[in-house]
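Teaching note: in complex prediction, the entire set of molecules is handled at once rather than each chain in isolation. The prompt given to students was simply: 'Predict the structure of this complex.' The entities are:
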Amino acid sequence: MDKPSFPFQYSAIPYIGRIFIPIIPIRLKTVNGVAKFNFLVDTGADLTTLPHFMASRLGIDLSKKKQSVAEGLGGFRVKTWLVKVDLIFPDDKLTVRASITDENSTPFLLGRVDLLDVIYSWNFDAELKKIMFEPIL
Amino acid sequence: MKKQGQKFVSLMKRYGPGFVAFSEASGRVLAHGRDIKKMWEDAEKKRIDFSKVVISHVPKYGSLSLYWRG
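The expected output is the structure of the full assembly:
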């Protein structure tokens, strides 16, 4: 298995300055064809998470999926559905358990389940300025 | 590296919070919306080739991002 790597991306915030934002492009097979999505690599997220509208674009029937609730900072709660999503990397395709939220402004989050500690180590390499997904041998 | 940061900042200032679909080749924003559904509808209306774009969430400029546990 090759080692996917992605260059650091940056943003900036007033009064703080430049901020590293760990986003990486991952392809998903949608009803409009295979498209590339920027996912935020979120070690704080249990599950890979997508906004509600993506269910229809990925051909997922939510009426047949188990419902759950996700809780975030400040106790903010959102209804979710547990699904499986195929993530297409340049040289690899992985099926991971994911959650679809009930709203359409949720960012694309890459969570830990089925990825971190199972398939890849995630290395934020500050020297190379790259996010490296290192396969577990 | 500085350019990368500036590019994202300009996206946040113009389109955040929301979603954009930008050309992978040129970086030009081809469709946008306040949420993913609106962005997608804009992209379909413009008959964008989804295989040639990158779809990205764009946070609001000036706000720190705190994400929930998915």
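Point out the following to students. The first helix of chain B runs from residue 2 to 15. The two ends of chain B are 30 Å apart (CA to CA).
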